[in-house]
Amino acid sequence: MYKLAYVSVATRTLTSVDLQSILEAAITRNRDSNITGILLFNGTNFMQVLEGPQEEVEKIFEDICADDRHRNVVVIYRERTSVREFEEAPMLLQIVPASHGVAPDGMTVTKDIALFLPTSLARHFRTILESFDTRRD
């Protein structure tokens, strides 16, 4: 089992339809590749966690890096792990509040991301996800 997390900057304003399309494609591909994870979006930046077999995670991440809907992709976390944290979700999407950027119309903003994180998540990794709103372009 392998876990990878990255942050990136959206290259354009994304609508709720755009985000739904991203989520649906991720769920389909991730399910086929035995990948799970979570995608956070704050109106400007993404943070995503992918977990599963290392080769599959890296293959999907390579495709993600080539996606023109974002830029400045920076890996913030990589580790081998024996635990799958998001075991029930091929991909979750959470819109989080931001000091900059605006959530797309029609999307519900999650005020407390901690409610959607697994209780088993390591403290240091939980802190990274909970503090998402620090990257600016």
Kindly summarize this structure in a few lines.
By secondary structure, the chain is of the alpha+beta class. The protein is built from 3 helices and 5 strands, in the order E-H-E-E-H-E-E-H.
Shape: globular
Radius of gyration: 14 Å
In the CATH hierarchy, the third-tier topology is known as Alpha-Beta Plaits
Give the helix proportion (percent range): 25-40%
Question: Largest sheet, described in full?
Answer: 5 strands, mixed
Total domain count: 1
The assigned CATH architecture is 2-Layer Sandwich
Order of helices and strands: EHEEHEEH
Give the mean pLDDT: 87
Structural class: alpha+beta
How many beta-strand runs? 5
- Percent of residues in beta strands? 25-35%
Number of helices: 3
CATH class: Alpha Beta
Distance between the ends = 32 Å
Pfam family, one: BLUF
Protein name: BLUF domain-containing protein
GO molecular function, one term: FAD binding
Domain BLUF: 1-92
